[in-house]
Request: fold
Amino acid sequence: MINKVFKATVRSVLIGYLIVLLLIPIGSIYFKGFSLGWEPFWQEVTGPLAWKSILLTVKLSIVSTVIQAIVGTIIAYVLVRYTFRGKSILNSMVDLPFSLPTSVAGLMFLTLLGPSSPLGVWLDHAGIKLLYNQTAIVIGLVFVTFPFVIRTVQPLLEQIDPAEEQASFTLGASRFYTFCRIVFPAIVPGILAGSMLAFSRSLAEFGAISLISGNLPGKTMVASVYIYGETQNYNPEGAAAISLVLLTLSLLILWIINVLTRGKGRLA
Reply:
């Protein structure tokens, strides 16, 4: 009896915590976004600057996610399968973007790539522009989302028996063939999950991007910066409308990836 009461209490606390922490804030965004009706909401979302900021955010988030899916998988494989000097330091530095405020990351890139830095001067002479453009946004997004794919793929790689790979090598298979036929199918759920987290995080990034993108309307202004501008212009409904689009997109991506990863789990 006591055990049942304890389980019911814990379950109630967890449900209440989720309602307060997630459902109520999410519901408030939907309520505010549609508070003036469907037509004003649609006008806010389809406004030239708003729509361009959404498209730019989605496009560059996809680009940074693809980069993370490829590079993150390679780094995770190296960290799990190879032993080398400095491996522990590299492994610990993977989580650095989690511990840094994103505004600090933006300032770091300004200091590194700015016109007064040695690297910035060299890049300027070479005709390479890495600040105040879409390239800068991708660089910032890749930095702040760097750990996601690595940390979701690593545990799956550690579960793969190295003997399976050795057996493939013994039979004459190349490393690339072995990776594609043995390793890759096992880590696909981790790649998808990590990519989903990276994509969702990219949609919401503000601190680093606001410093290095230039925030040019219609060119380098992402949705998060646009939302901030709308709040400063005393247009909370407009800010909520764009936030609602990003939130719905994140929830949709989350649902799709969960379906795909469950399917992979059943196939495995």
